[in-house]
Amino acid sequence: VAKASAEVIRPSLFGIVIITVVYLPIFALTGIEGKTFHPMAITVVIALTAAMLLSLTFVPAAVAMFVTGKVEEKENRVMAWLNARYAPLLDWVMPRGRLVIGSAIALVALSAIGATRLGSEFIPNLEEGDIALHALRIPGTSLSQAITMQEGLEERIRKFPEVERVFAKIGTADVATDPMPPSVADNFIILKDRSEWPDPRKPREQLVEELNTAVRQIPGNNYEFTQPVQMRMNELIAGVRADVAIKLFGDDLDQLLESGKAIETVVKGIDGAEDVKLEQVTGLPVLSVTPKREMLARYGVSVTAVQDAVATATGGRKAGEVFEGDRRFDIVVRLPEINRTNLDALGQLPIGLPREGAGFVPLSELADIEMSVGPNQISRENGKRRAVITANVRGRDLGSFIDELRETVDAEVTVPEGYYIVYGGTFEQLQSASTRLQLVVPLALLLIFGLLFALFGSTKDAAVVFSGVPLALTGGVAALALRGIPMSISAGVGFIALSGVAVLNGVVMLSFIRDLRERGMGLDAAIREGALTRLRPVMMTALVASLGFVPMALNVGAGSEVQRPLATVVIGGIISSTILTLLVLPALYRMIWSRKSEEPTQPNAALAPENA
After folding, report:
1. Which residues neighbour 527 within 8 Å (Cβ) at sequence distance 6 or greater?
2. List of residues 6+ apart from 517 with CB closer than 8 A
3. Can you give the pLDDT at residue 610?
4. What DSSP element (H or E) covers 46?
5. Average pLDDT of the residues of the chain
6. What was the pLDDT predicted at 462?
7. pTM for the structure as a whole
Protein backbone atom coordinates (compact mmCIF):
# COMPACT_ATOMS: atom_id res chain seq x y z
CA VAL A 1 0.00 0.00 0.00
CA ALA A 2 2.77 2.41 0.91
CA LYS A 3 4.63 1.69 -2.32
CA ALA A 4 1.49 2.09 -4.43
CA SER A 5 0.63 5.37 -2.71
CA ALA A 6 4.12 6.71 -3.26
CA GLU A 7 3.96 5.84 -6.96
CA VAL A 8 0.72 7.77 -7.54
CA ILE A 9 1.61 10.92 -5.63
CA ARG A 10 3.26 12.60 -8.58
CA PRO A 11 0.60 11.76 -11.20
CA SER A 12 -2.16 12.70 -8.76
CA LEU A 13 -0.53 16.01 -7.92
CA PHE A 14 0.00 16.85 -11.57
CA GLY A 15 -3.55 15.76 -12.33
CA ILE A 16 -5.11 18.21 -9.88
CA VAL A 17 -2.80 20.99 -11.07
CA ILE A 18 -3.77 20.29 -14.70
CA ILE A 19 -7.48 20.41 -13.84
CA THR A 20 -6.98 23.69 -11.97
CA VAL A 21 -5.15 25.19 -14.92
CA VAL A 22 -7.91 23.97 -17.26
CA TYR A 23 -10.45 26.00 -15.30
CA LEU A 24 -8.38 29.22 -15.40
CA PRO A 25 -10.19 30.44 -18.56
CA ILE A 26 -13.52 30.09 -16.75
CA PHE A 27 -12.28 32.38 -14.00
CA ALA A 28 -11.28 34.88 -16.69
CA LEU A 29 -14.91 35.31 -17.68
CA THR A 30 -16.51 38.41 -16.22
CA GLY A 31 -19.99 39.89 -16.17
CA ILE A 32 -23.06 37.73 -16.61
CA GLU A 33 -21.24 34.69 -17.97
CA GLY A 34 -18.76 34.87 -15.09
CA LYS A 35 -21.49 34.90 -12.47
CA THR A 36 -23.02 31.87 -14.19
CA PHE A 37 -19.92 29.65 -14.37
CA HIS A 38 -17.57 30.81 -11.58
CA PRO A 39 -19.40 28.73 -8.91
CA MET A 40 -19.10 25.63 -11.09
CA ALA A 41 -15.36 26.13 -11.59
CA ILE A 42 -14.74 26.77 -7.89
CA THR A 43 -16.75 23.70 -6.92
CA VAL A 44 -14.88 21.40 -9.32
CA VAL A 45 -11.43 22.62 -8.26
CA ILE A 46 -12.19 22.33 -4.54
CA ALA A 47 -13.83 18.91 -4.96
CA LEU A 48 -10.87 17.53 -6.94
CA THR A 49 -8.39 18.90 -4.41
CA ALA A 50 -10.27 17.27 -1.56
CA ALA A 51 -10.53 14.00 -3.51
CA MET A 52 -6.78 13.98 -4.15
CA LEU A 53 -5.98 14.56 -0.46
CA LEU A 54 -8.33 11.76 0.59
CA SER A 55 -6.94 9.37 -2.02
CA LEU A 56 -3.40 9.92 -0.71
CA THR A 57 -4.27 9.75 3.00
CA PHE A 58 -7.60 8.14 3.90
CA VAL A 59 -7.78 5.55 1.11
CA PRO A 60 -4.33 3.95 1.77
CA ALA A 61 -5.06 3.83 5.49
CA ALA A 62 -8.46 2.26 4.90
CA VAL A 63 -6.96 -0.32 2.54
CA ALA A 64 -4.28 -1.23 5.08
CA MET A 65 -6.86 -1.64 7.83
CA PHE A 66 -9.74 -3.38 6.08
CA VAL A 67 -8.28 -5.23 3.07
CA THR A 68 -6.75 -8.36 4.59
CA GLY A 69 -6.05 -11.94 3.54
CA LYS A 70 -5.42 -13.00 -0.01
CA VAL A 71 -5.90 -10.16 -2.48
CA GLU A 72 -6.35 -10.86 -6.16
CA GLU A 73 -7.73 -8.87 -9.05
CA LYS A 74 -10.43 -10.44 -11.20
CA GLU A 75 -12.11 -9.17 -14.31
CA ASN A 76 -15.85 -9.09 -14.41
CA ARG A 77 -17.80 -10.20 -17.46
CA VAL A 78 -18.14 -6.70 -18.86
CA MET A 79 -14.40 -6.01 -18.79
CA ALA A 80 -13.65 -9.49 -20.15
CA TRP A 81 -16.01 -8.80 -23.04
CA LEU A 82 -14.40 -5.41 -23.68
CA ASN A 83 -10.88 -6.83 -23.50
CA ALA A 84 -11.75 -9.58 -25.95
CA ARG A 85 -12.85 -7.01 -28.52
CA TYR A 86 -10.29 -4.32 -27.76
CA ALA A 87 -7.23 -6.56 -28.13
CA PRO A 88 -7.82 -7.48 -31.83
CA LEU A 89 -8.65 -3.88 -32.64
CA LEU A 90 -5.46 -2.72 -30.94
CA ASP A 91 -3.45 -5.34 -32.84
CA TRP A 92 -4.89 -4.03 -36.11
CA VAL A 93 -4.24 -0.37 -35.24
CA MET A 94 -0.65 -0.64 -34.04
CA PRO A 95 1.07 -1.46 -37.37
CA ARG A 96 -1.11 1.09 -39.19
CA GLY A 97 -0.11 4.16 -37.24
CA ARG A 98 0.07 6.51 -40.21
CA LEU A 99 -3.42 5.57 -41.39
CA VAL A 100 -4.91 5.98 -37.90
CA ILE A 101 -3.17 9.29 -37.23
CA GLY A 102 -4.07 10.62 -40.67
CA SER A 103 -7.70 9.72 -40.08
CA ALA A 104 -7.60 11.49 -36.72
CA ILE A 105 -6.14 14.63 -38.30
CA ALA A 106 -8.81 14.57 -41.01
CA LEU A 107 -11.49 14.22 -38.33
CA VAL A 108 -10.10 17.22 -36.46
CA ALA A 109 -10.09 19.31 -39.66
CA LEU A 110 -13.63 18.22 -40.47
CA SER A 111 -14.84 19.18 -37.00
CA ALA A 112 -13.13 22.58 -37.29
CA ILE A 113 -15.10 23.23 -40.48
CA GLY A 114 -18.29 21.98 -38.82
CA ALA A 115 -17.76 24.26 -35.82
CA THR A 116 -17.99 27.30 -38.10
CA ARG A 117 -21.44 26.14 -39.25
CA LEU A 118 -22.96 25.62 -35.82
CA GLY A 119 -23.90 29.25 -35.37
CA SER A 120 -23.30 31.18 -32.17
CA GLU A 121 -25.09 32.94 -29.35
CA PHE A 122 -24.18 34.55 -26.04
CA ILE A 123 -26.02 32.38 -23.51
CA PRO A 124 -29.04 30.25 -24.42
CA ASN A 125 -32.32 31.95 -23.58
CA LEU A 126 -33.72 30.62 -20.34
CA GLU A 127 -37.38 29.66 -20.35
CA GLU A 128 -38.50 31.71 -17.37
CA GLY A 129 -42.03 30.32 -17.34
CA ASP A 130 -43.68 33.72 -17.83
CA ILE A 131 -43.99 36.18 -20.71
CA ALA A 132 -43.36 39.92 -20.86
CA LEU A 133 -45.38 41.84 -23.44
CA HIS A 134 -44.35 45.37 -24.33
CA ALA A 135 -47.38 47.27 -25.68
CA LEU A 136 -46.74 50.52 -27.56
CA ARG A 137 -49.54 52.86 -28.57
CA ILE A 138 -49.77 56.07 -30.55
CA PRO A 139 -47.67 58.85 -28.98
CA GLY A 140 -49.83 61.33 -27.16
CA THR A 141 -52.39 58.74 -26.08
CA SER A 142 -54.03 60.02 -22.89
CA LEU A 143 -53.86 58.07 -19.67
CA SER A 144 -57.59 57.35 -19.64
CA GLN A 145 -57.50 56.10 -23.23
CA ALA A 146 -54.42 53.97 -22.51
CA ILE A 147 -56.16 52.36 -19.53
CA THR A 148 -59.23 51.58 -21.64
CA MET A 149 -57.09 49.98 -24.34
CA GLN A 150 -55.10 48.09 -21.71
CA GLU A 151 -58.25 46.58 -20.19
CA GLY A 152 -59.28 45.27 -23.61
CA LEU A 153 -55.81 43.80 -24.16
CA GLU A 154 -55.76 42.04 -20.79
CA GLU A 155 -59.26 40.68 -21.31
CA ARG A 156 -58.16 39.11 -24.59
CA ILE A 157 -55.05 37.54 -23.02
CA ARG A 158 -57.03 36.05 -20.10
CA LYS A 159 -59.03 33.92 -22.53
CA PHE A 160 -56.02 31.64 -23.04
CA PRO A 161 -56.29 28.57 -20.78
CA GLU A 162 -52.50 28.59 -20.18
CA VAL A 163 -52.62 32.08 -18.61
CA GLU A 164 -53.06 32.32 -14.85
CA ARG A 165 -53.15 36.11 -14.58
CA VAL A 166 -51.93 39.23 -16.34
CA PHE A 167 -51.10 42.68 -15.04
CA ALA A 168 -49.42 45.77 -16.45
CA LYS A 169 -47.42 48.85 -15.58
CA ILE A 170 -48.25 52.07 -17.45
CA GLY A 171 -46.27 55.27 -17.47
CA THR A 172 -43.69 56.41 -14.91
CA ALA A 173 -43.74 55.47 -11.24
CA ASP A 174 -43.01 57.85 -8.35
CA VAL A 175 -39.47 56.50 -8.26
CA ALA A 176 -38.60 57.09 -11.90
CA THR A 177 -36.20 54.19 -12.43
CA ASP A 178 -38.04 53.21 -15.62
CA PRO A 179 -39.61 56.36 -17.12
CA MET A 180 -42.17 55.73 -19.84
CA PRO A 181 -45.02 57.78 -21.32
CA PRO A 182 -48.67 56.78 -20.79
CA SER A 183 -48.68 55.35 -24.30
CA VAL A 184 -46.32 52.52 -23.30
CA ALA A 185 -47.23 49.58 -21.05
CA ASP A 186 -45.24 46.64 -19.69
CA ASN A 187 -47.50 43.59 -19.49
CA PHE A 188 -46.52 40.58 -17.38
CA ILE A 189 -48.30 37.36 -18.37
CA ILE A 190 -48.04 34.78 -15.59
CA LEU A 191 -48.54 31.27 -16.94
CA LYS A 192 -49.95 28.26 -15.16
CA ASP A 193 -47.86 25.20 -14.41
CA ARG A 194 -47.49 23.02 -17.49
CA SER A 195 -49.41 20.22 -15.79
CA GLU A 196 -52.48 22.50 -15.88
CA TRP A 197 -52.19 23.29 -19.59
CA PRO A 198 -54.64 21.60 -21.98
CA ASP A 199 -51.57 20.36 -23.86
CA PRO A 200 -48.54 20.21 -21.52
CA ARG A 201 -46.26 19.41 -24.47
CA LYS A 202 -47.08 22.63 -26.31
CA PRO A 203 -43.82 24.57 -26.96
CA ARG A 204 -43.55 28.02 -25.48
CA GLU A 205 -42.82 29.45 -28.93
CA GLN A 206 -46.18 28.17 -30.18
CA LEU A 207 -47.98 29.85 -27.28
CA VAL A 208 -46.20 33.13 -28.04
CA GLU A 209 -47.26 32.90 -31.68
CA GLU A 210 -50.87 32.28 -30.66
CA LEU A 211 -50.78 35.23 -28.27
CA ASN A 212 -49.22 37.42 -30.94
CA THR A 213 -51.93 36.51 -33.44
CA ALA A 214 -54.67 37.20 -30.90
CA VAL A 215 -53.46 40.57 -29.61
CA ARG A 216 -52.70 41.94 -33.06
CA GLN A 217 -56.42 41.81 -33.78
CA ILE A 218 -56.80 44.68 -31.28
CA PRO A 219 -56.15 47.95 -33.20
CA GLY A 220 -53.94 50.77 -32.00
CA ASN A 221 -51.16 48.68 -30.46
CA ASN A 222 -47.70 47.48 -31.40
CA TYR A 223 -46.12 44.63 -29.47
CA GLU A 224 -42.81 43.07 -28.41
CA PHE A 225 -42.76 39.61 -26.81
CA THR A 226 -39.94 38.69 -24.45
CA GLN A 227 -39.47 37.46 -20.87
CA PRO A 228 -39.38 39.55 -17.67
CA VAL A 229 -35.79 38.85 -16.64
CA GLN A 230 -34.54 38.69 -20.22
CA MET A 231 -36.09 42.08 -20.96
CA ARG A 232 -34.30 43.71 -18.03
CA MET A 233 -31.01 41.98 -18.80
CA ASN A 234 -31.13 43.14 -22.43
CA GLU A 235 -31.85 46.66 -21.21
CA LEU A 236 -28.89 46.57 -18.83
CA ILE A 237 -26.52 45.09 -21.41
CA ALA A 238 -27.42 47.05 -24.55
CA GLY A 239 -29.83 49.78 -23.42
CA VAL A 240 -32.73 48.21 -25.33
CA ARG A 241 -35.31 45.59 -24.43
CA ALA A 242 -34.78 43.39 -27.48
CA ASP A 243 -32.13 40.90 -28.56
CA VAL A 244 -30.72 43.07 -31.34
CA ALA A 245 -30.47 46.84 -31.70
CA ILE A 246 -29.45 48.67 -34.86
CA LYS A 247 -28.46 52.16 -33.72
CA LEU A 248 -28.53 54.87 -36.40
CA PHE A 249 -26.68 58.07 -35.48
CA GLY A 250 -27.07 61.45 -37.16
CA ASP A 251 -28.18 65.07 -36.76
CA ASP A 252 -31.50 65.52 -38.55
CA LEU A 253 -34.52 63.76 -37.05
CA ASP A 254 -36.37 63.56 -40.37
CA GLN A 255 -33.37 61.89 -42.02
CA LEU A 256 -33.02 59.51 -39.07
CA LEU A 257 -36.67 58.57 -39.49
CA GLU A 258 -36.34 58.03 -43.25
CA SER A 259 -33.18 55.91 -43.00
CA GLY A 260 -34.57 54.07 -39.97
CA LYS A 261 -37.68 53.03 -41.92
CA ALA A 262 -35.47 51.70 -44.72
CA ILE A 263 -33.46 49.63 -42.24
CA GLU A 264 -36.66 48.42 -40.57
CA THR A 265 -37.97 47.15 -43.91
CA VAL A 266 -34.73 45.26 -44.55
CA VAL A 267 -34.67 43.69 -41.08
CA LYS A 268 -38.24 42.41 -41.44
CA GLY A 269 -37.16 40.40 -44.48
CA ILE A 270 -34.45 38.47 -42.61
CA ASP A 271 -35.31 34.98 -41.47
CA GLY A 272 -35.74 34.76 -37.68
CA ALA A 273 -36.51 38.45 -37.11
CA GLU A 274 -39.56 39.04 -34.90
CA ASP A 275 -41.08 42.11 -33.25
CA VAL A 276 -39.14 44.43 -35.55
CA LYS A 277 -39.88 48.09 -34.89
CA LEU A 278 -38.37 51.52 -35.27
CA GLU A 279 -38.11 53.66 -32.16
CA GLN A 280 -40.94 56.20 -32.02
CA VAL A 281 -38.98 59.24 -33.14
CA THR A 282 -41.98 61.29 -34.27
CA GLY A 283 -45.75 61.05 -34.00
CA LEU A 284 -46.51 63.30 -31.04
CA PRO A 285 -49.34 65.77 -31.90
CA VAL A 286 -48.17 69.35 -31.45
CA LEU A 287 -50.27 72.53 -31.45
CA SER A 288 -48.53 74.85 -33.87
CA VAL A 289 -49.34 78.61 -33.79
CA THR A 290 -47.45 80.48 -36.54
CA PRO A 291 -47.78 84.31 -36.39
CA LYS A 292 -48.71 86.19 -39.58
CA ARG A 293 -46.13 88.94 -39.70
CA GLU A 294 -48.09 91.18 -42.10
CA MET A 295 -51.27 91.05 -39.99
CA LEU A 296 -49.32 91.71 -36.81
CA ALA A 297 -47.78 94.79 -38.40
CA ARG A 298 -51.18 96.00 -39.66
CA TYR A 299 -52.78 95.75 -36.22
CA GLY A 300 -49.66 96.82 -34.36
CA VAL A 301 -49.62 93.68 -32.22
CA SER A 302 -46.30 92.23 -31.07
CA VAL A 303 -45.35 88.56 -31.33
CA THR A 304 -44.88 88.51 -27.55
CA ALA A 305 -48.52 89.48 -27.00
CA VAL A 306 -49.70 86.59 -29.16
CA GLN A 307 -47.37 84.14 -27.44
CA ASP A 308 -48.51 85.27 -23.97
CA ALA A 309 -52.18 84.89 -24.88
CA VAL A 310 -51.68 81.41 -26.32
CA ALA A 311 -49.55 80.33 -23.37
CA THR A 312 -52.20 81.52 -20.91
CA ALA A 313 -55.04 79.87 -22.81
CA THR A 314 -53.37 76.47 -23.23
CA GLY A 315 -50.89 76.15 -20.39
CA GLY A 316 -52.47 78.46 -17.84
CA ARG A 317 -51.11 81.37 -15.82
CA LYS A 318 -51.22 82.18 -12.13
CA ALA A 319 -53.72 84.94 -11.43
CA GLY A 320 -53.84 84.94 -7.64
CA GLU A 321 -54.07 82.80 -4.50
CA VAL A 322 -56.81 81.35 -2.32
CA PHE A 323 -56.23 80.90 1.40
CA GLU A 324 -57.84 78.16 3.49
CA GLY A 325 -56.41 78.48 6.97
CA ASP A 326 -52.68 77.91 6.66
CA ARG A 327 -52.95 76.42 3.19
CA ARG A 328 -52.53 78.31 -0.06
CA PHE A 329 -53.81 77.41 -3.49
CA ASP A 330 -52.86 79.09 -6.78
CA ILE A 331 -55.59 80.41 -9.03
CA VAL A 332 -54.71 79.38 -12.59
CA VAL A 333 -56.52 80.87 -15.57
CA ARG A 334 -56.78 78.83 -18.77
CA LEU A 335 -59.32 77.59 -21.28
CA PRO A 336 -61.37 74.44 -20.59
CA GLU A 337 -59.84 71.26 -22.00
CA ILE A 338 -62.54 70.93 -24.65
CA ASN A 339 -61.54 74.34 -26.04
CA ARG A 340 -57.79 73.78 -25.73
CA THR A 341 -57.99 70.93 -28.23
CA ASN A 342 -60.50 72.63 -30.53
CA LEU A 343 -58.75 74.61 -33.25
CA ASP A 344 -61.89 76.64 -34.08
CA ALA A 345 -62.33 77.62 -30.43
CA LEU A 346 -58.67 78.62 -30.19
CA GLY A 347 -59.08 80.67 -33.33
CA GLN A 348 -61.70 82.79 -31.53
CA LEU A 349 -59.32 83.62 -28.68
CA PRO A 350 -59.39 87.46 -28.36
CA ILE A 351 -56.09 89.30 -28.60
CA GLY A 352 -56.09 92.83 -27.22
CA LEU A 353 -54.94 95.63 -29.54
CA PRO A 354 -52.25 97.98 -28.23
CA ARG A 355 -54.26 101.21 -28.66
CA GLU A 356 -56.51 101.97 -25.73
CA GLY A 357 -60.13 101.27 -26.53
CA ALA A 358 -59.22 99.69 -29.88
CA GLY A 359 -60.83 96.42 -28.83
CA PHE A 360 -59.80 92.86 -29.68
CA VAL A 361 -59.03 90.78 -32.72
CA PRO A 362 -59.42 86.97 -32.94
CA LEU A 363 -56.26 84.84 -32.89
CA SER A 364 -57.12 83.34 -36.27
CA GLU A 365 -56.60 86.78 -37.86
CA LEU A 366 -53.09 87.08 -36.46
CA ALA A 367 -51.73 83.51 -36.73
CA ASP A 368 -52.13 80.17 -38.48
CA ILE A 369 -53.32 77.48 -36.08
CA GLU A 370 -52.85 73.80 -36.86
CA MET A 371 -52.11 70.40 -35.32
CA SER A 372 -48.82 69.10 -36.66
CA VAL A 373 -46.74 66.00 -36.00
CA GLY A 374 -43.68 66.73 -33.89
CA PRO A 375 -40.86 64.73 -32.32
CA ASN A 376 -42.00 62.11 -29.85
CA GLN A 377 -38.56 61.85 -28.23
CA ILE A 378 -35.01 62.90 -29.00
CA SER A 379 -32.60 60.19 -27.88
CA ARG A 380 -28.88 60.74 -27.59
CA GLU A 381 -25.93 58.46 -27.00
CA ASN A 382 -22.40 59.80 -26.55
CA GLY A 383 -23.67 63.25 -27.46
CA LYS A 384 -25.15 62.16 -30.83
CA ARG A 385 -28.79 61.90 -31.80
CA ARG A 386 -29.87 58.38 -32.57
CA ALA A 387 -32.79 56.25 -33.70
CA VAL A 388 -32.93 52.57 -32.78
CA ILE A 389 -34.40 49.67 -34.76
CA THR A 390 -34.94 46.71 -32.44
CA ALA A 391 -35.72 43.05 -33.17
CA ASN A 392 -36.01 39.77 -31.33
CA VAL A 393 -34.53 36.59 -32.80
CA ARG A 394 -36.54 33.37 -32.77
CA GLY A 395 -35.91 30.09 -34.53
CA ARG A 396 -32.20 30.61 -35.29
CA ASP A 397 -28.93 31.44 -33.58
CA LEU A 398 -27.98 35.02 -32.84
CA GLY A 399 -24.52 34.93 -34.43
CA SER A 400 -25.63 33.94 -37.94
CA PHE A 401 -28.53 36.39 -37.69
CA ILE A 402 -26.16 39.27 -36.96
CA ASP A 403 -23.85 38.26 -39.83
CA GLU A 404 -26.73 38.18 -42.30
CA LEU A 405 -28.14 41.40 -40.88
CA ARG A 406 -24.90 43.29 -41.38
CA GLU A 407 -24.41 42.01 -44.92
CA THR A 408 -28.00 42.81 -45.93
CA VAL A 409 -28.06 46.29 -44.39
CA ASP A 410 -24.69 47.21 -45.91
CA ALA A 411 -25.85 46.02 -49.33
CA GLU A 412 -29.37 47.50 -49.42
CA VAL A 413 -29.29 50.63 -47.23
CA THR A 414 -27.21 53.71 -47.95
CA VAL A 415 -27.05 56.30 -45.18
CA PRO A 416 -26.07 59.93 -45.90
CA GLU A 417 -22.64 61.26 -45.15
CA GLY A 418 -22.21 61.98 -41.46
CA TYR A 419 -24.63 59.22 -40.46
CA TYR A 420 -23.44 55.83 -39.26
CA ILE A 421 -24.79 52.53 -37.91
CA VAL A 422 -23.75 50.69 -34.75
CA TYR A 423 -25.03 47.20 -33.91
CA GLY A 424 -25.84 46.42 -30.28
CA GLY A 425 -27.39 43.63 -28.26
CA THR A 426 -26.43 40.56 -26.31
CA PHE A 427 -24.03 39.41 -29.04
CA GLU A 428 -21.67 42.17 -27.85
CA GLN A 429 -21.19 40.18 -24.64
CA LEU A 430 -20.46 37.10 -26.74
CA GLN A 431 -17.78 39.01 -28.63
CA SER A 432 -16.16 40.40 -25.47
CA ALA A 433 -16.19 36.99 -23.74
CA SER A 434 -14.77 35.33 -26.88
CA THR A 435 -12.00 37.94 -27.04
CA ARG A 436 -10.98 37.22 -23.45
CA LEU A 437 -11.05 33.46 -24.02
CA GLN A 438 -8.92 33.82 -27.17
CA LEU A 439 -6.17 35.17 -24.92
CA VAL A 440 -6.62 33.00 -21.85
CA VAL A 441 -7.34 29.58 -23.41
CA PRO A 442 -4.06 29.36 -25.40
CA LEU A 443 -2.17 30.41 -22.28
CA ALA A 444 -3.90 27.69 -20.23
CA LEU A 445 -3.16 25.07 -22.90
CA LEU A 446 0.47 26.15 -22.94
CA LEU A 447 0.63 25.75 -19.16
CA ILE A 448 -0.93 22.28 -19.45
CA PHE A 449 1.74 21.28 -21.97
CA GLY A 450 4.39 22.59 -19.62
CA LEU A 451 2.98 20.52 -16.77
CA LEU A 452 2.95 17.40 -18.96
CA PHE A 453 6.57 18.04 -19.88
CA ALA A 454 7.43 18.42 -16.19
CA LEU A 455 5.63 15.15 -15.44
CA PHE A 456 7.19 13.02 -18.20
CA GLY A 457 10.44 14.88 -18.79
CA SER A 458 9.95 14.39 -22.52
CA THR A 459 8.55 16.72 -25.15
CA LYS A 460 7.43 13.77 -27.26
CA ASP A 461 5.48 12.13 -24.46
CA ALA A 462 3.92 15.44 -23.49
CA ALA A 463 2.88 16.00 -27.11
CA VAL A 464 1.39 12.49 -27.34
CA VAL A 465 -0.81 13.10 -24.28
CA PHE A 466 -1.65 16.64 -25.33
CA SER A 467 -2.90 15.37 -28.70
CA GLY A 468 -5.97 14.17 -26.82
CA VAL A 469 -7.28 17.74 -26.61
CA PRO A 470 -8.10 18.36 -30.31
CA LEU A 471 -9.72 14.97 -30.88
CA ALA A 472 -11.77 15.39 -27.71
CA LEU A 473 -13.06 18.67 -29.14
CA THR A 474 -14.23 16.86 -32.28
CA GLY A 475 -16.67 14.79 -30.25
CA GLY A 476 -18.04 17.93 -28.62
CA VAL A 477 -18.62 19.61 -31.99
CA ALA A 478 -20.29 16.47 -33.37
CA ALA A 479 -22.59 16.24 -30.33
CA LEU A 480 -23.65 19.89 -30.70
CA ALA A 481 -24.34 19.37 -34.40
CA LEU A 482 -26.41 16.24 -33.79
CA ARG A 483 -28.58 18.00 -31.21
CA GLY A 484 -28.85 21.23 -33.22
CA ILE A 485 -27.32 23.36 -30.45
CA PRO A 486 -25.36 26.49 -31.49
CA MET A 487 -22.02 27.47 -30.03
CA SER A 488 -22.29 29.59 -26.89
CA ILE A 489 -20.34 30.56 -23.80
CA SER A 490 -21.98 27.59 -22.07
CA ALA A 491 -20.65 25.22 -24.76
CA GLY A 492 -17.26 26.94 -24.55
CA VAL A 493 -17.06 26.21 -20.85
CA GLY A 494 -17.85 22.58 -21.67
CA PHE A 495 -14.92 22.47 -24.11
CA ILE A 496 -12.64 23.91 -21.42
CA ALA A 497 -13.70 21.30 -18.87
CA LEU A 498 -13.36 18.57 -21.49
CA SER A 499 -9.68 19.34 -22.09
CA GLY A 500 -8.77 18.28 -18.56
CA VAL A 501 -10.51 14.91 -18.82
CA ALA A 502 -8.85 14.19 -22.17
CA VAL A 503 -5.40 14.95 -20.78
CA LEU A 504 -5.91 12.87 -17.63
CA ASN A 505 -6.88 9.77 -19.63
CA GLY A 506 -3.69 10.07 -21.63
CA VAL A 507 -1.64 10.49 -18.45
CA VAL A 508 -3.17 7.31 -16.97
CA MET A 509 -2.21 5.17 -19.98
CA LEU A 510 1.13 6.69 -20.90
CA SER A 511 2.47 6.61 -17.31
CA PHE A 512 1.91 2.86 -17.17
CA ILE A 513 3.45 2.28 -20.62
CA ARG A 514 6.57 4.20 -19.59
CA ASP A 515 6.75 2.23 -16.36
CA LEU A 516 6.67 -1.05 -18.29
CA ARG A 517 9.43 0.11 -20.62
CA GLU A 518 11.57 1.15 -17.65
CA ARG A 519 11.21 -2.41 -16.33
CA GLY A 520 12.76 -3.70 -19.53
CA MET A 521 9.73 -4.65 -21.60
CA GLY A 522 9.92 -4.09 -25.35
CA LEU A 523 8.24 -1.10 -26.98
CA ASP A 524 5.39 -2.89 -28.74
CA ALA A 525 4.84 -5.29 -25.87
CA ALA A 526 4.79 -2.41 -23.34
CA ILE A 527 2.30 -0.48 -25.45
CA ARG A 528 -0.01 -3.46 -25.83
CA GLU A 529 0.22 -4.50 -22.21
CA GLY A 530 -0.23 -0.94 -20.98
CA ALA A 531 -3.25 -0.31 -23.23
CA LEU A 532 -4.98 -3.54 -22.21
CA THR A 533 -4.20 -3.07 -18.52
CA ARG A 534 -5.35 0.54 -18.48
CA LEU A 535 -8.56 -0.21 -20.38
CA ARG A 536 -10.57 -0.42 -17.18
CA PRO A 537 -9.36 2.87 -15.56
CA VAL A 538 -9.80 4.72 -18.86
CA MET A 539 -13.32 3.35 -19.31
CA MET A 540 -14.21 4.11 -15.69
CA THR A 541 -12.98 7.68 -16.03
CA ALA A 542 -14.99 8.13 -19.20
CA LEU A 543 -18.16 6.53 -17.80
CA VAL A 544 -18.06 8.45 -14.51
CA ALA A 545 -17.52 11.78 -16.24
CA SER A 546 -20.07 11.19 -19.01
CA LEU A 547 -22.81 9.57 -16.91
CA GLY A 548 -22.53 12.41 -14.41
CA PHE A 549 -23.50 14.86 -17.17
CA VAL A 550 -26.39 12.80 -18.58
CA PRO A 551 -29.02 14.39 -16.26
CA MET A 552 -27.85 17.85 -17.33
CA ALA A 553 -27.98 16.90 -21.01
CA LEU A 554 -31.54 15.54 -20.77
CA ASN A 555 -32.90 18.07 -18.28
CA VAL A 556 -35.90 20.11 -19.41
CA GLY A 557 -36.53 22.07 -16.19
CA ALA A 558 -35.73 25.65 -15.27
CA GLY A 559 -32.16 26.57 -16.22
CA SER A 560 -31.67 23.52 -18.42
CA GLU A 561 -31.03 25.73 -21.47
CA VAL A 562 -27.66 26.80 -20.01
CA GLN A 563 -26.74 23.33 -18.75
CA ARG A 564 -27.63 21.42 -21.91
CA PRO A 565 -24.84 22.73 -24.22
CA LEU A 566 -22.19 22.21 -21.54
CA ALA A 567 -23.26 18.64 -20.81
CA THR A 568 -23.63 17.79 -24.50
CA VAL A 569 -20.09 18.94 -25.24
CA VAL A 570 -18.59 16.99 -22.33
CA ILE A 571 -20.41 13.74 -23.15
CA GLY A 572 -19.60 13.87 -26.86
CA GLY A 573 -16.01 14.91 -26.20
CA ILE A 574 -15.42 12.14 -23.66
CA ILE A 575 -16.54 9.56 -26.23
CA SER A 576 -14.06 10.80 -28.83
CA SER A 577 -11.39 11.30 -26.17
CA THR A 578 -11.77 7.68 -25.04
CA ILE A 579 -11.40 6.46 -28.63
CA LEU A 580 -8.25 8.58 -28.95
CA THR A 581 -6.76 7.27 -25.73
CA LEU A 582 -7.44 3.63 -26.58
CA LEU A 583 -6.54 3.63 -30.30
CA VAL A 584 -4.79 6.74 -31.56
CA LEU A 585 -2.54 7.34 -28.55
CA PRO A 586 -0.88 3.86 -28.65
CA ALA A 587 -0.37 4.15 -32.42
CA LEU A 588 1.04 7.66 -32.10
CA TYR A 589 3.35 6.69 -29.25
CA ARG A 590 4.63 3.68 -31.20
CA MET A 591 5.24 5.69 -34.36
CA ILE A 592 7.20 8.35 -32.48
CA TRP A 593 9.37 6.03 -30.37
CA SER A 594 9.88 3.08 -32.75
CA ARG A 595 12.58 4.95 -34.66
CA LYS A 596 14.46 5.89 -31.49
CA SER A 597 14.08 2.56 -29.68
CA GLU A 598 17.36 0.86 -28.91
CA GLU A 599 15.87 -2.60 -29.17
CA PRO A 600 14.82 -4.29 -32.41
CA THR A 601 11.19 -3.84 -33.20
CA GLN A 602 9.29 -6.97 -34.18
CA PRO A 603 5.71 -5.88 -34.73
CA ASN A 604 4.26 -9.28 -35.57
CA ALA A 605 5.82 -11.12 -32.63
CA ALA A 606 5.38 -8.32 -30.14
CA LEU A 607 1.74 -7.91 -30.99
CA ALA A 608 0.94 -11.57 -30.51
CA PRO A 609 -1.11 -12.11 -27.32
CA GLU A 610 1.10 -14.95 -26.09
CA ASN A 611 4.25 -12.76 -26.22
CA ALA A 612 2.70 -9.76 -24.43
Report:
1. 94, 513, 586, 589, 590
2. 523, 526
3. 36
4. helix 31-56
5. 81
6. 85
7. 0.69
